[in-house]
Amino acid sequence: MQSNLAIAKKYAPHAKACAVVKANAYGHGLKYGMLGFAEADALGLIELEAAAQLRDLGWQKPIILLEGFFEPSDVQLAIQRNFEPVIHCTEQIEMLESTRLESPMKVHLKMNSGMNRLGFKPENFRAAHARLKKIAGIKEIGLMTHFANADERQHPVMPVDEQLNRFQFASRGLPGERSLCNSAAGLMHPEIAGDWIRPGIILYGGSPDGSSVKKFGLRSAMTLTSKLIGIQEICKGESVGYGSLFVADSSMKVGIVACGYADGYPRHAPTGTPILVNGVRTRVVGRVSMDMMAVDLSPLPVAQVDSPVTLWGDALPIDEVAQAAGTIGYELMCALAQRVRVEVRTESDGPAQAE
Ligand SMILES: *Cc1c(COP(=O)(O)O)cnc(C)c1O
């Protein structure tokens, strides 16, 4: 986490970094996110409860609420705990107008520059800004937007440059810090970084476009490991697991791994999804079940019960597993289940891949 943050900062050396720790720090644990990103200039997240927890844990630098308030009562909590909300709709401005702000608050006004998810349309942005400015207690208004396709600059439908132009045109002359870039934009178009970057996935060693981890020197923060708890020898024509989706075309050994969809491994990972046993690459076979999955031991004549298994990590990029399963690394990280035992290793404990 530390070295990934350093890489994010290196690509945008003049921008401050808001490390995104939403969704339990993308499945890594909020507290570990906070410790790992101690060098960040701010933490950004969605959940107010988690934001309060960060304050309880001692985080004193800014905390940005990336979707702002959900309820009027959130405004008080934000004031008390000194959160900086994103303001993306008129209803949120109304919540601020109808609350007496006892201490000064910084907010971030979001423009919908083309993603059409959250934010004020460019033509309404200045009016929203003027309305916010009138509220006593608002001491600073940051300006932000979010790209739909930062990982593909020449996107045929909504290119980065189109959103960038709309943002720049509609915010021209307004005071305030600019925040535009998620991981993909910060790494791939650092020239548009502005005053703040908002990296998420790269801080955990995942790739925003499924392929750039090596290129940028990112390292997996999370390594998911298990072991073989059983071995079956099956004959040609026999099948493995629910639905008998995999049928052996010759006699073979199959390893049973103690990991399933209740641990967060994707159930839709098909036969062929890469996995490491004893550090050797092989494939998942058959349907992933709740607590177990099967692997092909053909390349591993010496594998036995207790042999270590790596589901993802530096030695097997999560993006590769995700791609095989038709999803993205983000989803796999976030889905890591509560029951998985978490061991935290720091650099001084030795390499994370200590198998
Ligand atoms: C989640 C999020 C990010 C981080 O996105 P990554 O693709 O993980 O880098 C940045 N900005 C906002 C507003 C977000 O919600």
Written description of the protein model:
The chain has helices spanning 2-11, 22-26, 30-36, 48-56, 73-80, 90-97, 122-133, 160-171, 183-188, 213-216, 318-324, 329-334; strands spanning 16-20, 42-45, 63-65, 83-87, 105-111, 138-145, 178-181, 196-197, 224-234, 239-240, 246-247, 252-257, 274-277, 280-285, 293-296, 308-312. By secondary structure, it is an alpha/beta fold. An 8-stranded parallel β-barrel has the order 1-2-3-4-5-6-7-8, surrounded by 5 helices. It has a 6-stranded antiparallel beta barrel with strand order 9-12-15-14-13-16. Helix 7 (122-133) crosses helix 8. Residues 20, 22, 66, 146, 182-184, 198-201, 208 line the site of pyridoxal-5'-phosphate (PLP). Pyridoxal-5'-phosphate (PLP) binds at residues 20, 22, 66, 146, 182-184, 198-201, 208.
Describe the protein's topology:
Elements: H1 2-11, E1 16-20, H2 22-26, H3 30-36, E2 42-45, H4 48-56, E3 63-65, H5 73-80, E4 83-87, H6 90-97, E5 105-111, H7 122-133, E6 138-145, H8 160-171, E7 178-181, H9 183-188, E8 196-197, H10 213-216, E9 224-234, E10 239-240, E11 246-247, E12 252-257, E13 274-277, E14 280-285, E15 293-296, E16 308-312, H11 318-324, H12 329-334
Parallel strand pairs: 1-2, 1-8, 2-3, 3-4, 4-5, 5-6, 6-7, 7-8
Antiparallel strand pairs: 9-12, 9-16, 10-11, 12-15, 13-14, 13-16, 14-15
The gyration radius over C-alpha positions equals: 23 Å
The secondary-structure class comes to: alpha/beta
Average pLDDT figure:
95
Helix content: 25-40%
Low-confidence stretches: 351-355
Rounded to the nearest angstrom, the distance between the terminal CA atoms is 20 Å
Order of helices and strands: HEHHEHEHEHEHEHEHEHEEEEEEEEHH
What does the main sheet amount to?
8 strands, parallel, barrel
Give the number of DSSP strands: 16
Q: Total helix count? A: 12
Instruction: Give the strand line-up of the largest sheet.
Output: 1-2-3-4-5-6-7-8
**Which cofactors or ions or other ligands sit in this model?**
pyridoxal-5'-phosphate
Shape annotation: elongated
Q: What proportion strand?
A: 15-25%
